[in-house]
Specification:
The chain is α/β, with parallel strands linked by helices and 220 residues long. Helices cover 41% and strands 11% of the residues. The chain has 7 helices and 6 strands. The chain has helices at 3-38, 52-55, 79-88, 115-118, 129-134, 151-167, 196-209, and strands at residues 42-44, 66-71, 98-100, 111-114, 135-140, 176-178. Strands 1-4-3-5-2-6 form a 6-stranded mixed sheet. The chain is globular.
Length: 220
């Protein structure tokens, strides 16, 4: 085969591969968008600064001891899509209390809280029962084994954790852990590019900016 012909075939195969990948991504986005729009019982926070009244469930708070940070481990995702997946596993619905979007398809930094927060229900996001009973599950859409979270998405996660800590006296930044830091967990979640030591340091700084002082130390 002539070199020119070989090059043309290789180019056509590369274009076909790219087209197939783009089609698959488009299908995933359409499915995720439909799930997001039609999905679970959820409440969308307004854009801008997060205040307690935006997430006040209007009922007695559970005895929360932890905030557990997760990633969805997928580039495309939504509250509704996760809810559907968890229901397919036989659960009563999405296992997280909050979901933060990355733009695919939920807007970047958008926060939705689910029925578990509204009803102050236990979570279903850590294999260990104790963390589910006393841990608030926050899931950031994205795969942080492969890339860093979007800066706005990350900042919104910090702000959300700060507001929760300000209104739940027995919580502190040291009780904000990654899924993989939970005792008995065997997972890389929330991924190598979401460093929890850095997250806790940034959370301390954010609380200080908001006038909420806490002594800083780390048990991890």
């Amino acid at each position: 085969m002539a070199p020119a012909q070989s090059g043309n075939i290789t180019q056509r195969l590369s274009l076909q591969h790219a087209a197939s990948w783009l089609l698959a991504l488009t299908v995933l986005l359409v499915i995720a968008t439909l799930s997001w729009r039609a999905g679970t019982d959820r409440h969308r926070l307004p854009d801008g600064p997060i205040r307690w009244q935006h997430i006040d469930p209007g009922t007695a708070l559970r005895d929360w001891q932890w905030i557990v940070i997760h990633h969805s481990a997928a580039e495309v995702g939504s509250t509704g899509g996760i809810d559907r997946d968890h229901r397919n596993r036989g659960w009563e619905g999405i296992g997280y209390h909050f979901v933060i979007g990355n733009g695919m398809p939920m807007p970047i930094g958008s926060i939705e809280w689910t029925f578990r927060w509204r009803l102050q229900r236990h979570g279903a996001h850590v294999a260990t029962r104790d963390y589910n009973q006393t841990g608030i599950g926050i899931c950031l859409i994205g795969n942080f084994q492969e890339q860093r979270p979007d800066p706005l998405q990350y900042a919104r996660a910090i702000d959300l954790a700060a507001v929760i800590i300000e209104h739940i006296p027995n919580l502190s930044p040291e009780q904000v852990i990654g899924h993989g830091e939970a005792l008995g967990a065997n997972t890389d979640c929330p991924g190598r590019y979401l460093d929890m030591d850095t997250f806790r340091t940034d959370l301390h700084e954010r609380l200080a900016e908001r006038g909420h002082w806490l002594p800083q130390h780390s048990d991890f």
